[in-house]
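User: quick one, sequence for these tokens?
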């Protein structure tokens, strides 16, 4: 759920959910961005872009699994995003490269791969040292598309909220999700089908995107990529690709623990 400012979000939450649950839900808000192609004459945010070559530290090999390369889908410039994220960005990783495994591989070969690092990878690079690195075949290649990061305040999707997060009337609702479905439905998934960074993921599917650790902390959302006709990518029927990372790993800057999942109808 995306709002342009915190005050509007808080007012809507209290009006729809009541004082207690409204403030509890608003307290789950995170700062994030809509990733948009700049309007005519507009400028990209730092070095943020979709597609293009990777920006890797010198000598960093292109990631691969079983001899097949991953494809580069996006680069985020966290130095340019840091002023809005503030304390929500505990480390400054510089450039983040987002890779996904989708080469043109025969099924019999694909089924043999062990994916020790998962189907998605996030690799950080030093902005002062990073060099453009072209994708080797048969990785997919997309044209470099600079993007503007539009600031937004985001609430979790209905399916990423757990019962203990909100106070609700158990005689009226079967859980926190039921409360949000009844009171916030038209605000849910208002960035589904869009490219977004940080904040919360947004999905129109009845499955959660984030998981929680032993301390109950939800994963940190890094990137949401929707279908894009101009770039000719997609993941099944109305599919979306999500990159998330455990909260502890994010605080420590351990982006090797980030994972990706594609969800579609």
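Assistant:
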């Amino acid at each position: 759920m995306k709002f342009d400012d915190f005050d509007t979000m808080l007012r809507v939450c209290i009006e729809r959910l009541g004082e207690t649950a409204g403030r509890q839900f608003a307290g789950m808000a995170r700062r994030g961005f809509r990733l948009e192609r700049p309007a005519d004459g507009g400028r990209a945010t730092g070095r943020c872009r979709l597609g293009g070559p990777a920006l890797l530290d010198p000598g960093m090999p292109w990631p691969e699994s079983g001899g097949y390369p991953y494809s580069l889908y996006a680069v985020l410039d966290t130095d340019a995003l840091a002023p809005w994220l503030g304390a929500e960005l505990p480390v400054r990783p510089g450039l983040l490269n987002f890779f996904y495994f989708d080469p043109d591989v025969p099924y019999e070969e694909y089924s043999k791969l062990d994916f020790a690092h998962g189907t998605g990878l996030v690799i950080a690079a030093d902005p002062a040292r990073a060099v453009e690195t072209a994708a080797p075949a048969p990785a997919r290649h997309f044209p470099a598309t600079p993007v503007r990061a539009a600031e937004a305040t985001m609430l979790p999707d209905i399916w990423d909220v757990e019962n203990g997060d909100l106070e609700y009337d158990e005689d009226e609702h079967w859980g926190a999700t039921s409360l949000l479905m009844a009171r916030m439905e038209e605000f849910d998934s208002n960035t589904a089908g869009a490219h977004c960074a940080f904040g919360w993921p947004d999905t129109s599917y009845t499955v959660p995107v984030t998981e929680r650790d032993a301390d109950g902390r939800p994963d940190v959302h890094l990137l949401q990529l929707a279908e894009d006709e101009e770039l000719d990518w997609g993941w099944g029927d109305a599919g979306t690709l999500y990159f998330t990372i455990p909260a502890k790993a994010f605080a420590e800057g351990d982006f090797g623990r980030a994972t990706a999942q594609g969800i579609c109808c």
